[in-house]
Amino acid sequence: MQPMSRTTRQLRAWRLRGRRQAGRALVLLLLSGALLLPILAAKASSETPKASVYQVQAAYLYNFGKFVRWPAVAPANQGGSFSICVFDQDPLAAVLQSTLAGESVGNRPVVIRRVAKAQEAGSCHILFISLAQRKELKEILAALDQKSVLTVSDIPDFSSEGGMIQFVFEGDRIRFEINLEGAQRAHLVFPSELLRVAVAVRKPARPGE
């Protein structure tokens, strides 16, 4: 077999780069809420509305994992998997397991973990906090303060309470707000393209404000 010419190698590299960029663009559309519900409409037609909401949230959590960057020293990065955690009894866990079975983030297979309390979530990449934990929200966020765990919830005012990503409803779409100050306290990096598709971004206060 003849060696590959430099031109051929460049063409293949450009095609691969184009496919990656197209894939990233599609993910951004998903994160903007433009495609999530239509994609799931056919499947959700035979299921309850709540089930379709869980599927959208599962898709969001997975794609957040593709954009947010965790520090190399984060406890979550010391294992070989990408862990998405929920509290015990949260019905989202079953949807996450069925929706994300066989998926991976980078080279890490996605693993769904149930935790009984916030202190058990320190080694999670993502922790979803449902409405059922609303009364304990302050204690949960305090337990994870400055820990490199991405906190996500559909609790109203979650981002203003210190949570990092809050799901919000806009008509038939689920969108999200970002609390950038909370993310920075946890040493997580949110790329600009993720910030652009958020409906609101809470930025850290400048000195003197």
What labels would you give this structure?
Rossmann fold, alpha/beta, 8-stranded mixed sheet, 209 residues, 7 helices
SSE blueprint and pairings:
Elements: H1 6-31, H2 36-44, H3 49-67, E1 82-87, H4 92-99, E2 104-105, E3 108-115, E4 126-129, H5 137-143, E5 150-153, E6 165-170, E7 173-179, H6 180-185, H7 192-197, E8 200-202
Parallel strand pairs: 1-3, 1-4, 4-5, 5-6, 7-8
Antiparallel strand pairs: 2-3, 6-7
Helix pairs in contact: 2-3, 3-4
Structure description:
The chain is α/β, with parallel strands linked by helices and 209 residues long. It has a single domain (6-202), classed as Rossmann fold (3-Layer(aba) Sandwich). 39% of the residues lie in helices and 19% in strands. The protein has an eight-stranded mixed sheet. Helix 2 (36-44) runs antiparallel to helix 3 (49-67) and helix 3 packs across helix 4. The radius of gyration is 18 Å and the shape is globular. The protein starts with 5 loop residues before the first helix and ends in a 7-residue tail after the last strand.
